[in-house]
């Protein structure tokens, strides 16, 4: 809380807005996540909005990731979304800023969480994603035959707990032989398997949505920063004639810009999709009557 005023003022200056009077609305992350962290940001956001007599819009963190690529390029709806991060792994159709249809999600660990846990098993630095990716650069992807959960199914759900357990067993079995080559090889095999799992689920999603006029595949979230996985998804997109959109690395991980953009999208989407009540979003939260949510599914907007 003590750091927020300085951070906000610096951001205001860097943005070129310079004055609070140039702000029309506040968007704030309201979930999903730890309530203790969320409530701090919400209290500050509501305070600023109240002081300026402007709207304060609660934003789902997942929606922020889902819409981030549209901050860079005007991608047409609907599009296929892969949101893959430390806490989430979701495939969905994005029809608008206010409408999502989830095709599949993780049933246990998220991909990013699996990267973190494997890195910890090997004594690599946190966060695990960059550490595993770096170690994998000199490794052999075929060194270890790791399981691919749901490999022969036609749904879009994920599971990474079995893969994580398999890696752990190999590490325990090779306790006396853990050297740089072993770490590189197991990381390369693990990373390759994660990519195969993701590509497999995306193939199913493409098949399930073939009657929907989808032209773009959007990948967002921290794991989207992994070059190996990005390249494998790019090959898939090319094969199925989909335009692939991945945010710059600075916007793949959690950031404030995506929340602000989601707020803008929600306001304008309201105008575009609910013309009879163009102020619905603003009117809905005009009294700042919302609270942090520890759980908040992507397809539940309000």
TrEMBL record:
<keyword id="KW-1133">Transmembrane helix</keyword>
<keyword id="KW-0819">tRNA processing</keyword>
<protein>
    <recommendedName>
        <fullName>N(6)-L-threonylcarbamoyladenine synthase</fullName>
        <ecNumber>2.3.1.234</ecNumber>
    </recommendedName>
</protein>
<keyword id="KW-0808">Transferase</keyword>
<keyword id="KW-0472">Membrane</keyword>
<feature type="transmembrane region" description="Helical">
    <location>
        <begin position="79"/>
        <end position="98"/>
    </location>
</feature>
<dbReference type="InterPro" id="IPR043129">
    <property type="entry name" value="ATPase_NBD"/>
</dbReference>
<keyword id="KW-0012">Acyltransferase</keyword>
<dbReference type="InterPro" id="IPR022450">
    <property type="entry name" value="TsaD"/>
</dbReference>
<dbReference type="InterPro" id="IPR017861">
    <property type="entry name" value="KAE1/TsaD"/>
</dbReference>
<dbReference type="InterPro" id="IPR000905">
    <property type="entry name" value="Gcp-like_dom"/>
</dbReference>
<keyword id="KW-0408">Iron</keyword>
<keyword id="KW-0963">Cytoplasm</keyword>
<keyword id="KW-0812">Transmembrane</keyword>
<dbReference type="GO" id="GO:0002949">
    <property type="term" value="P:tRNA threonylcarbamoyladenosine modification"/>
</dbReference>
<feature type="domain" description="Gcp-like">
    <location>
        <begin position="3"/>
        <end position="261"/>
    </location>
</feature>
<dbReference type="Pfam" id="PF00814">
    <property type="entry name" value="TsaD"/>
</dbReference>
<dbReference type="GO" id="GO:0061711">
    <property type="term" value="F:tRNA N(6)-L-threonylcarbamoyladenine synthase activity"/>
</dbReference>
<keyword id="KW-0479">Metal-binding</keyword>
<dbReference type="GO" id="GO:0046872">
    <property type="term" value="F:metal ion binding"/>
</dbReference>
